Amino acid sequence: MGSNLILGIVIAIIVIAAIIYGIGFFIRKKNQEKLKALEDRKKALFDLPIKDEIDDIKKMHLVGQSQNSFKEWNQKWEKLSTDNFAELESQIFEVENLNEAFRFVKAKAAVDKAQKTMDNMEKEIGKVRDEFNELRESEERNSLKVQQALDIYEGMKKSLREEGEKFGPAFAEIQKQVKSVESEFTQFITLNTSGDPVEAREVLETAEKHTFELEELMKKVPEEYEKLHSIFPGQLEEIADGYQTLMDEEYVIPKENFEEDIAHVKRRVENSVEDLEKVEISTVEADNDETANQIDQLYDVMEREIAAKRYVVKNRKALADYVDHATSNNRQLLIELDHTSQTYTLNHNELARVRGFQSEIEEIARRNDSVDPKLEAHEIPYSEVQSFYKDAFEILDGVESEQVEIDQALRDLRKEETAAQDRADAFEFKLRSLKRFVEQQRLPGLPGEYLDFFFGVTDRLEELDDLLNKTRVDMDDVNELVAICAEDLDVLQEKTHDMVDEAALTEQMMQHANRYRHSHTEVKASIDRTLDLFNYEYRYKDALDEIGTALERVEPGAFKRIEDFYYENRKELV
């Protein structure tokens, strides 16, 4: 038992030792892998071309703020490349020793510390390289920008040299501003070539701003100068010559102080020239727009008068003829109204309207008579006469349109009377036909309601006949009564046929019901009641309802069958 226990203990110790060794071997291998990674990262940092980048920047001969910035970041690099790299080497060496001595806990802590040092170094070196790169790119940007700005500047100088006359009085001030920009570029070039691109950039930005502003100014000045030097003076001269021509032809200009307005615009042009000399371009642009507007107004005044004269000359006789034509039409219409009023009642104020036309025509004639002498004496603007002519033509057009409307209405009265008489004759014929139709049915009598309506229609037809035979026929009343009579006759015709159909159907139902008289006492009672309603009270619809209901009770469907037969053979039965 004792020997077995000892053997078991020995085996257990060997197993534990093997496990511990295995774990130690695994940890040692892991640490070696981390060490390899650290070595690789360290080598990558050593291989960075930072020294070459520094040499390139040194060749730029930086000064001032740029030089200070370079020194600051170069010192950071020197510290990183000496102290920090030495510290990193020491930490890596310590990790290797601890790992070889199987002091894994301390080795792990040393690895973590070395990795953190590596992380910080990579981060700091990245910052250093970014700053070096910014310094180099700043100089390159300045070089590119200055070339672009200088190209524009050279273009402006060339434009002043070769086309200076198109800038007019603004030439001197523009030249002065060009020289100012040149001074700014000189300052920039000095700073940039001496190795201070950061400060040079600020100067360049100012120079660029002034260059682009001046470029925009030089684009605008020639156009505005052209207006002030050539366009406006030419237009004003043309207006002055045109005005003199109109005066020679004895035009009357409706605008007072026309010559003073021309002089006012000339002074505006002179003031704008002075502003252009000072290169106050925004003021010149706004004033030139207003000047152009005022010149357009002067042109409009003269052009309106010239066009108005053409209109007046063309329409002068036409207006006089139109007045005579409207007067003649109105006179004839008054005669026609007087004649028509003897036969017809005029209900639409025709006479007052025609007299109103006469007043309008006479007012136009009066104004035209007052305008003609002024035209002959050249005392009135043609535009004023044109306005009067247009208003007069519009009024006369309206008068003629209403004259034609009234004349046509008078002619229509006779047509309406003839049509109304024809309809009245047709109504009489229709009433007589309905009367004969009822008589042919040999009914025992007619319902009182039907007779009342029949005689009412008869009275209205007589009333229509009386209206048509009056000395002065009122066609409004006639047409209204014609419409009523037409409607009444339609209703009467419907009532007549309904009454005849109800009577005939009642007789058909009675004949069929007689077969049930002796077998059904209720049918006999209905037959007796139906005969009373039919023969003595003339209530044909009630009689039909009475016998139809009784018959339907003893023979369902009989009513519909008899009714269908009746309407299919109506012509033979009625």
Automatic annotation (TrEMBL):
<feature type="coiled-coil region">
    <location>
        <begin position="104"/>
        <end position="138"/>
    </location>
</feature>
<keyword id="KW-0132">Cell division</keyword>
<keyword id="KW-1133">Transmembrane helix</keyword>
<feature type="topological domain" description="Extracellular">
    <location>
        <begin position="1"/>
        <end position="8"/>
    </location>
</feature>
<dbReference type="Pfam" id="PF06160">
    <property type="entry name" value="EzrA"/>
</dbReference>
<dbReference type="GO" id="GO:0005886">
    <property type="term" value="C:plasma membrane"/>
</dbReference>
<keyword id="KW-0812">Transmembrane</keyword>
<feature type="transmembrane region" description="Helical">
    <location>
        <begin position="6"/>
        <end position="27"/>
    </location>
</feature>
<keyword id="KW-0717">Septation</keyword>
<keyword id="KW-1003">Cell membrane</keyword>
<comment type="function">
    <text>Negative regulator of FtsZ ring formation; modulates the frequency and position of FtsZ ring formation. Inhibits FtsZ ring formation at polar sites. Interacts either with FtsZ or with one of its binding partners to promote depolymerization.</text>
</comment>
<dbReference type="GO" id="GO:0000917">
    <property type="term" value="P:division septum assembly"/>
</dbReference>
<protein>
    <recommendedName>
        <fullName>Septation ring formation regulator EzrA</fullName>
    </recommendedName>
</protein>
<keyword id="KW-0175">Coiled coil</keyword>
<dbReference type="InterPro" id="IPR010379">
    <property type="entry name" value="EzrA"/>
</dbReference>
<comment type="similarity">
    <text>Belongs to the EzrA family.</text>
</comment>
<dbReference type="GO" id="GO:0000921">
    <property type="term" value="P:septin ring assembly"/>
</dbReference>
<keyword id="KW-0131">Cell cycle</keyword>
<keyword id="KW-0472">Membrane</keyword>
<feature type="topological domain" description="Cytoplasmic">
    <location>
        <begin position="28"/>
        <end position="574"/>
    </location>
</feature>
<dbReference type="GO" id="GO:0005940">
    <property type="term" value="C:septin ring"/>
</dbReference>
